Amino acid sequence: MDDLFSVAGKTALVTGGARGLGFTYAKALASRGAKVIICDLDEHAVAAAVAELTSYGEIKGYKANVAIEQEVIALVDKVSNELGQLDILINNAGVVQRVTTEDMTLQEWNRVMDVNLTGTFLCCKHFGVMMKRKGKGKIINVSSIAGRMGLDLRLAYCTSKAAIEHLTRTLAAEWGPDHVNINAIGPGYIKTAMNEDTRADPVRYQKMLNQLPWGRFGEPEELVGVLLFLASPASDYVTGQTIFVDGGLLTQ
């Protein structure tokens, strides 16, 4: 039973892992014995994160833009050559753009879609080949409560997260025969740098708190339980699902 939720000895990649929730995911996996690779756009942030995470376990870090296919392919080659396999993929890289629809430019729309959705697709596609070849693997995509409910000023973000949920379901059906599990985590209102501006506005913040049955924002560490479930043998017969960690927000 102790091994049911174990990730010890597994190799995991966390995209967008140099900061925010990605850093929390990487720390959780490394501290439980996984070999962790992080990638991010900012090489200085990657270096700083690797330096901090080294005390928790085995860590490697690379600069990569998951929205550019050649950079994803190059990352696959590095992982394959240096580690030989990938057991767990966490598609965490994401951006948000807060703007009214009438003011949103095509460039802003494309940026959100490229990182959130296309980046998830590219990493699933190219790292999934490694997993299919091995006949086993865990892919964890990061959706959001924004994939199920509309949020003001975030048309592109909400649309991208809804698409990630359907990508997860569709790919799970396609790769089920290859024993590759594809699931998603759907964070709710979690305290991160991405929503610092929102929490700094007392009126807006209180309105959001009023939506939550638990009456508070979640802490990043409160996502770790679901992460370990989906990354470990405990979820071997679970695929195509999105598990929300939202303090009951979607019950409202």
UniProtKB/TrEMBL annotation:
Keywords: Oxidoreductase. It comes from the Bacteria. InterPro entries: KR_dom (IPR057326), NAD(P)-bd_dom_sf (IPR036291), Sc_DH/Rdtase_CS (IPR020904), SDR_fam (IPR002347). It comes from Ammoniphilus resinae. This is NAD(P)-dependent dehydrogenase (Short-subunit alcohol dehydrogenase family). Belongs to the short-chain dehydrogenases/reductases (SDR) family. NCBIfam families: PRK07231.1, PRK12826.1-2. Residues 10-188 form the Ketoreductase domain.
